[in-house]
Design brief:
single chain, alpha/beta, Rossmann fold, six-stranded mixed beta sheet, 5 helices, binds inosinic acid, binds magnesium ion
Length: about 180
């Protein structure tokens, strides 16, 4: 397959898994006296959440929400809407928002606002990847896996046109890969 030849590994599987275990152990310690509720952003964070959950040693609950950006059809939009409602009752709960990547910050900022309005007791954020150079709105990130430069990456839940979510590593989108999709 042409696409297998053209992605470049940025963070390999072993490093990701090691870091996910570290974050899980810190969260397990920080929340040992409570039962946190993880609100997970679909689709991208589904793999991160699945791995994180299996390494967390305290009781916890998991829910999922889908947000979407609209506007000029651009990936980087400040207009973020919600596809489904938050089904869990977040009132007075210890909530941790889980995302796979924080880029402009608009998505996570939008979700945080809604969770505050719904009366979350405490609110923290957890992201596997942080791209601080791309930030357009300030957000507090409490648990960060890796800080990366402002480049487009795929794998471990992250997609390019719905592809590559299944890669076990985080890979850089190379010009060759773009060519493969836009011959
Ligand atoms: P935001 O810009 O922080 O609102 O992030 C919006 C969403 O864009 C993220 O949750 C990802 O789904 C997607 N995204 C941002 N950067 C990348 C990337 O490098 N690869 C794939 N998806 C990305
Ligand atoms: Mg996302």
């Amino acid at each position: 397959m042409e696409t297998r030849l053209v992605y470049k590994t940025l963070i390999d599987e072993e490093r990701i898994q090691g870091r996910v275990r570290e974050i899980a152990s810190v969260i397990s310690r920080d929340y040992r006296d409570t039962t946190p509720l993880f609100i997970t952003l679909l689709k991208g964070a589904f793999i991160f959440m699945a791995d994180l959950s299996r390494h967390i040693t305290i009781p916890h609950e998991i829910d999922f929400i889908t947000l979407f950006s609209y506007g000029q059809g651009s990936r980087r939009s400040s207009n973020v809407g919600m596809i489904n409602h938050i089904r869990s009752n977040v009132r007075d709960r210890d909530v941790i928002v889980v995302d796979e990547i924080v880029d402009t910050g608009h998505t996570i900022a939008r979700l945080m606002r809604t969770l505050e309005e719904h009366g979350a007791g405490t609110l923290r954020t957890c992201t596997l990847l942080d791209k601080p150079d791309a930030r357009q709105v300030e957000v507090r990130l409490d648990y960060i896996g890796f800080t990366i430069p402002d480049i487009f990456v795929v794998g471990y839940g992250l997609d390019y046109r719905e592809r590559f979510r299944n890669l076990a590593c985080i890979a850089e989108l190379t010009p060759d890969l773009e060519r493969a999709f836009n011959p």
